[in-house]
Amino acid sequence: MERIAARIALRSARPRDLSGLRRTLQALPQIRASVDQLELHSARPLLEPLQGLECWCELLQRALIEEPPLLIRDGGVLASGYDAELDELRELSRGADAFLTELETREREATGINGLKVAYNRVHGYYLEVPRSQSDRAPASWTRRQTVKNAERYICEELKTYEDRVLGARERAL
């Protein structure tokens, strides 16, 4: 417990350190009961400094998932329901696939481009991909983002807005 407390004080604690602290704090009532039951009077002074830590135990139980990742940069440390804004950001990030599928279907119907796909890459972000043979059907409201061998890639205002929200949400959720 001292080592974990030192890491917390130095702001170098990892998620699993906090999980270990939570487990230790959860065991304290049982340790106290055992000391009282066995009438180990000499051990009672050792438990005195640990009085009043129940609120920290409750906080860690609410805040951390059961088995947090090794590093905080991996994300997913805080439990669902602990922070409403974080829950909203996670839901936005999880709902990305449904939105993209719906946008792809809607744009296919609106433009008549059967080969239209909505995709993502790390360099250009989200884009609408249209086969080169059908690129003349792309609406003027779309902005060309990239030309590849057999296709043109575009961005529309709705997709750009969504991209900003989703990528920002993923970054902030970490």
Characterise this structure:
The protein has 174 residues and is α+β, with helices and mostly antiparallel strands. The protein folds into 2 domains: 81 residues, Orthogonal Bundle (MutS, DNA mismatch repair protein, Chain A, domain 3), CATH 1.10.1420; 81 residues, Orthogonal Bundle (MutS, DNA mismatch repair protein, Chain A, domain 3), CATH 1.10.1420.10. Helices cover 51% and strands 13% of the residues. The protein is built from 7 helices and 4 strands; from the N terminus they run ααααααββββα. A 4-stranded antiparallel β-sheet has the order 1-2-4-3. It is rod-shaped, with a radius of gyration of 26 Å. The model has no long low-confidence stretch (mean pLDDT 89).
Q: What is the strand and helix layout of this fold?
A:
Blueprint: H1 2-9, H2 15-37, H3 44-47, H4 54-63, H5 84-94, H6 96-111, E1 117-121, E2 125-131, E3 143-148, E4 151-155, H7 157-173
Antiparallel strand pairs: 1-2, 2-4, 3-4
Helix pairs in contact: 1-2, 2-4, 5-7
Task: Describe the structure concisely for a colleague.
Helices cover 51% and strands 13% of the residues. The protein has 174 residues and is an alpha+beta fold. The protein folds into 2 domains: 81 residues, Orthogonal Bundle (MutS, DNA mismatch repair protein, Chain A, domain 3), CATH 1.10.1420.10; 81 residues, MutS, DNA mismatch repair protein, Chain A, domain 3.
